[in-house]
Amino acid sequence: MTDTAAASTTDPAQLLNNFHERREYSVVQPNGNLALVNTQWITDAEPQPVWGAAGLWSPLPAGQSGLKVTAAAADGVVVDGALVDGEAVVRGKDTDDPSTIAFSDTITGTVIGNEAGEYALRVWDIQSEGIREFGSIDVFPYNPEWVIQATFTPVEGLSVGFEHLKDEGATRELAIPGEITFSKDGTDYNLAAFKAGRALQLVFSDATSGDDTYSVGRFLFVAPNADGTITLDFNRAILPPCAFSYAFNCPMPPKQNRFAVRIEAGEKNVLKKDGSLLHEF
To answer: Which of 34, 100, 145, 241 has a Cα-to-Cα distance from 130 of 20 to 30 A?
Structure first.
């Protein structure tokens, strides 16, 4: 390996640049954030149309995962590889084997559920307006000041109420596996992060929110080490999905995750090709 190649794999700024290149690639994929054009919850028993999708959609009996679609062959709805001509069950993403849905060569669907046992159809379009207008994700330069060594302390039975952007002030209690604590510039912090697969998801805002960065806040995914230490590299803070598409409903930062200081690290905003903001939130 040449000296140049070795440096490219260890230099924090270059590693961060590689990370952001992968991020910009991911958001324009068929199920990337910019491809989502609709999320419609199906709660009425009467079959209903969904904007951007063919067929009529209705709930399944309580306790069953997914939705029922009613369509004619001419509608072109394909579920799990089979053209629907009549009715079909569409399994949700909360199952081990969620259904695949295709409406055309460019438009697909997925079914998601919530804590109340309700299900929604999500519609994805690889030719969405967001993808056509997308220019870049604006980011801060690498900032070593915001690579924080913290402590993770597991706590059983802990939960925090998270408000979501579209929930009109209602909160959802989400389990918190532990506390993340650190001190910086004379201030002690105790942060709440919920589980996201094998990682922890930190939802936070700071004094840049609504000014230099997206107003709703940002996400940081972290994993504690076996010895209880945890690295918070805010240079890898990313914008929430709702910064890319209004069809997402993002969690808002809980009170303890709202920094009074500026965190000048990580992603800032989604920009159009002309450099203007994609969303004005």
So the answer is: 100
CB count, 10 Å around CB of 185? 6
Supply angle C-alpha 133, 137, 139, rounded to 5.
155
DSSP 1: -
Pairing of strands 36-42, 119-125: antiparallel
* Predicted pLDDT of residue 169: 63
pLDDT, residue 168, reads: 62
- Higher local confidence (pLDDT), 228 or 174: 228
Coil, strand or helix at 277: strand
Task: Specify the 3-state DSSP secondary structure of 83.
Answer: strand
Alpha helix stretches (DSSP H) within 11-163: 12-26, 129-133
Pairing of strands 199-204, 187-196: antiparallel
Cα–Cα dist 52/30, whole Å: 15
- State the pairing for strand pair 86-90/67-71: antiparallel
Is the pTM for the entire model greater than 0.85?
Answer: yes
Residue 274 contacts by C-beta under 8 Å, 6 or more apart in sequence?
A: 135
Mean pLDDT computed over 219-246: 96
